[in-house]
Write a structure and sequence with these properties.
There is one protein chain. By secondary structure, the chain is α/β, with parallel strands linked by helices. The chain is 32% helix and 21% strand. It is built from 15 helices and 22 strands. It has helices spanning 6-13, 58-63, 85-98, 114-125, 143-148, 169-176, 192-195, 198-205, 207-211, 225-228, 284-297, 302-311, 340-354, 373-386, 399-409; strands at 4-5, 16-18, 26-27, 31-32, 43-45, 68-71, 79-81, 104-109, 131-132, 157-161, 181-184, 217-221, 237-242, 249-256, 262-268, 271-276, 321-324, 330-333, 360-363, 391-394, 414-416, 420-421. The strands form six sheets. It has a nine-stranded mixed beta sheet. β17 (321-324) and β18 form a beta hairpin. α11 (284-297) packs across α12 (302-311) and α14 packs across α15. The longest helix has 15 residues, at 340-354. The protein is globular and about 70 Å long. Mean pLDDT is 92; it is low at 415-430. The structure holds adenosine-5'-triphosphate and magnesium ion.
Length: 430
């Protein structure tokens, strides 16, 4: 964090000091919400959690060296008391951005692929200058300010991930750190239950392009009509990416290697260059194109982008994470957080990676789909069947519709209704 005194933090957050002996004490960061990560110069934000209340760990944070605690009530150690700790974090993050005029901010949103794209983009942009990007999926009203608060006087780029569970969420994140560049990946069914439907999801994601300034750049997916239509919702210049020939940044000649890793020719108005991704699954082509478009707009040349993409690794775990067991079995863990589009992508990657072997899918239930949950799980079962699996194991609350969907398409026979479907006689791959 850029250094701020407790007086400054109190002014920024409107916090009232309690037991603070030295208001000149400086917070240099990090700002943490886990007392075990507190150290000299840090600020501990006490948040109520589902299992524990951060206020109970305030003394531990100060004992570890935290300069003070941001808290909703007195905690027996030096604290700034504020009515709303997340709002105070947001105010503090916004103040850090205001004090860092040389910072270029890029934000990424969409229903699937934000973390993957953010990780790819960060690996490219880090070659241009000191870059801060979220750990894992820090993308909401807590994670985003915590990410912004890692910005220092040396930071040149902030690559932010922005999520929404309702209208106004992305606009609020954009107010904390006004982006000059914004990427929208796609509009899909993730959280669609909470929003009401895809049009509502699209309206929420469009808050990012709407927040961009006239001198900014909106990077939009040309292959997703709801996302492409956001060109009309922004004052910024529009750059498109996708497989469509009309896209400004596109992939030609996509092929998958034996491990399902895509190779393609990256085409832009500056020319073309070969890319071989280390990530598994064809869906990562779109994520890579979005990252390439972003890096290109920041001045990175095409050859460097193509090389950077080919060298980039999966930084965040449990997204198409591949483990090869000594006995020859390959395990693909894509269990981070599923939604219908992510599951369809994973099944298609599984089919591509099995290449004559036997493939099994273990599918759990996808949350936050609202009234569409049954239908979407049945569709997932149908997709699993179409992927030519040797077996499908469905677990959890929505196992029954998944099995029903699978059985409607194949000769799978359920061995344990509601839990498991047995294999068809002979595996065949398309
Ligand atoms: N372009 C894509 N299309 C479909 N599925 C994708 C795409 N990119 C990633 N996925 C899959 O979506 C899931 C989540 O990926 P990732 O964490 O990158 O997305 P996210 O948008 O950050 O998710 P969250 O909303 O949970 O933060 C993983 O299963 C991943 O394999
Ligand atoms: Mg994420």
């Amino acid at each position: 964090m850029i250094p701020l005194s407790l007086t400054q933090i109190s002014e920024i957050t409107g916090g009232t000091g309690d037991l603070i002996a030295d208001y000149c004490a400086t917070v240099t960061g990090p700002v943490v919400i886990d007392s075990r990560q507190a150290g000299p110069g840090s600020l501990f934000a006490a948040l109520p959690g589902t299992r524990a209340d951060g206020h109970d760990f305030a003394a531990q944070a100060v004992a570890a060296g935290a300069a003070a605690v941001l808290a909703a009530r007195p905690v027996g150690v030096p604290a700034l008391i504020v009515p709303d700790v997340p709002a105070a974090l947001a105010a503090l993050a916004a103040a850090v951005v205001r004090r860092t005029p040389g910072l270029t901010i890029a934000a990424i949103t969409g229903s699937a692929g934000k973390t993957t794209t953010k990780d790819l983009a960060a690996q490219l942009i880090e070659s241009l200058g000191p870059t801060v990007s979220p750990r894992n999926s820090y993308n909401n009203e807590i994670g985003h300010p915590l990410t912004v608060l890692r910005v220092t006087g040396q930071t040149r780029y902030l690559v932010a991930e922005m999520s929404a569970r309702g209208p106004g969420h992305i606009a609020a994140l954009c107010r904390i750190s006004p982006p000059r560049l914004g990427v929208v990946l796609c509009v899909g069914h993730a959280h669609a239950g909470e929003f009401g439907g895809l049009d509502e999801v699209a309206r929420a994601k469009a808050e990012l392009p709407a927040a961009l300034p006239a001198g900014g750049v909106a990077v939009l997916n040309a292959d997703d009509p709801r996302t492409a239509a956001m060109a009309g919702a922004t004052a910024a210049r529009v750059v498109t990416f996708g497989r469509s020939p009309a896209a400004d940044v596109r992939a030609a000649g996509v092929v998958l290697d034996e491990a399902g890793r895509p190779g393609f020719t990256l085409c832009t108005e500056a020319g073309s260059a070969p890319v071989r991704l280390r990530l598994h699954g064809e869906h990562n082509v779109g994520n890579a194109l979005a990252a390439a478009a972003l890096a290109g707009q920041l001045g990175m040349d095409l050859a460097a982008v193509a090389e950077g993409l080919s060298a980039a690794t999966a930084r965040s775990r449990w997204r198409m994470e591949v483990t090869r067991r000594p006995d020859g079995v390959t395990v693909i863990n894509d269990a981070y957080n599923a939604n219908p589009e992510a599951l369809a992508a994973a099944l298609s990657a599984l089919a591509a990676m099995a290449r004559g072997g036997r493939a099994f899918a273990v599918l759990g239930h996808m949350t936050e789909l609202g009234a569409q949950a049954g239908e979407r799980h049945e569709q997932a079962g149908r997709q699993a069947a179409r992927a030519g699996l040797a077996g499908l194991i469905a677990v959890g609350e929505e196992a029954a519709p998944m099995l029903a969907g699978a059985k409607a398409r194949t000769r799978f026979k359920s061995a344990h209704p509601g839990r498991c479907a047995a294999r068809p006689p002979a595996p065949r791959w398309p």
